[in-house]
Design a protein that fits this description.
9 helices, single chain, four-stranded mixed β-sheet, 22% strand, alpha+beta, rod-shaped, 366 residues, four-stranded antiparallel β-sheet
């Protein structure tokens, strides 16, 4: 093969390779999870977004007309064409993304320090504005970190700790008040916020703290989400919601809090034990009183029955003795001898008196 033929063959091969490069470089695909911005010599010429509602497409189209005239807008996944070498495609994620950073220290309105760990869900709403402002998801996370924690600190700084830990927005307690029980106190017992026993002992002191219906963690996070959404709109970002994952006390304060909680529980348990001991003594005293009362009533009843029995026996004895007077005197003599004599005693008797019965003829004495 001569030299011109070789040159022609090489040139043909180069043309084929160049044609293939142009062919494959002219087409690109966008799947259901992606959106893209096509730049021509650094200037946007086309925006491809994923599935959008008619309202969102109308708002995006209006923004492009006002801020980037001449840029075309299309939606949906598929095969697209671009001019090779002149146009570049910047692809962005069209799914919901998650922001999650390290916990940060915040201070509540009632001067409580908290380690707040929050997270957020967001998506790229305007890919062209996103490319012009932050360009990458990494840079967007940095902007979200500044915005979210700035708004979160501001909102938490306006709220008390009890409003942050409450999950519901509705008021808790009586009306719009939260019922808090303090330790046992023995001062100001005439106030209406004192709970006392029937014996007049103070059980607990109640404090009522007003919690408006628009407070609480849900309402706070709603305000944080709305404020964050407004502030990040200039980056082409739409924040779906912001949530608090954890809200802990700083590690330096936890031991002090645990010690205070333990002392509080000990005070309450001591109070319960003292109250139980007092109630036990009261129950024992009442039981002893009832036992003494029952015993007294039983003794009185026994004496009454014994008296009635003695009376009945005496009546029976009297009736019997009236029927046999000689036998009565004989029995009386025997009982007297039994009481005054033992086996070694000697008795000298007179013929008169109660022992006359023994020296007279039986039946002659009346």
């Amino acid at each position: 093969m001569n030299t011109p033929a070789k040159i022609k063959g090489c040139f043909t091969g180069i043309l084929i390779v160049f044609a293939l490069l142009i062919f494959f470089g002219a087409f690109f695909t966008i799947d259901e999870t992606e959106q893209a911005v096509i730049l021509q010599l650094g200037k946007p010429v086309r925006v491809i977004v994923g599935d959008r509602s008619p309202e969102e497409m109308a708002a995006l189209e209006l923004w492009i007309q006002e801020n980037a005239p001449g840029v075309s807008l299309s939606s949906g996944a598929g095969l697209y064409f671009k001019i090779p070498f002149l146009q570049q495609v910047h692809v962005f994620d069209d799914r919901v993304l998650e922001y999650d950073d390290e916990p940060s220290d915040v201070v509540t309105r009632d001067k409580k320090h908290l380690q707040v760990d929050c997270y957020a869900r967001w998506r790229i709403e305007n890919p062209l504005l996103f490319l012009q402002s932050v360009q990458s998801v990494y840079a967007a996370s940095s902007r979200l970190d500044d915005v979210i924690y700035s708004v979160l600190r501001q909102e938490i700084g306006r709220s008390d700790l009890i409003q942050i830990v409450r999950n519901a927005n509705n008021p808790v307690g009586i009306g719009e008040y939260v019922r808090l029980v303090d330790n046992v106190a023995y001062s100001d017992t005439s106030a209406g916020n004192i709970v006392m026993t029937d014996a007049g002992e103070v059980i607990e002191v109640i404090r009522m703290i007003r919690v408006p219906s628009d407070q609480g963690r849900e309402a706070l996070l709603t305000r944080v989400t709305e404020a964050t959404r407004i502030m990040t709109a200039e980056y082409g970002i739409y924040v779906l919601d912001v949530r608090i994952k954890r809200a802990d006390l700083p590690m330096a304060n936890q031991q002090a809090v645990f010690t205070r909680m333990q002392a509080e529980r000990n005070r309450i348990s001591t109070r319960y034990r003292a109250e139980g001991h007092r109630m036990a003594q009261t129950i024992l005293a009442e039981t002893d009183l009832r036992v003494d009362s029952i015993s007294s009533l039983a003794d009185r009843r026994a004496l009454q029955i014994r008296g009635m029995a003695d009376s009945t026996a005496a009546s029976i004895y009297a009736s019997a003795y009236e029927s046999y007077p000689d036998f009565y005197r004989f029995m009386q003599s025997l009982e007297t001898l039994d009481k005054i004599m033992d086996a070694n005693d000697e008795v000298v008797l007179s013929t008169s008196g109660i022992f006359q019965y023994f020296v007279t003829t039986p039946g002659s004495m009346r």
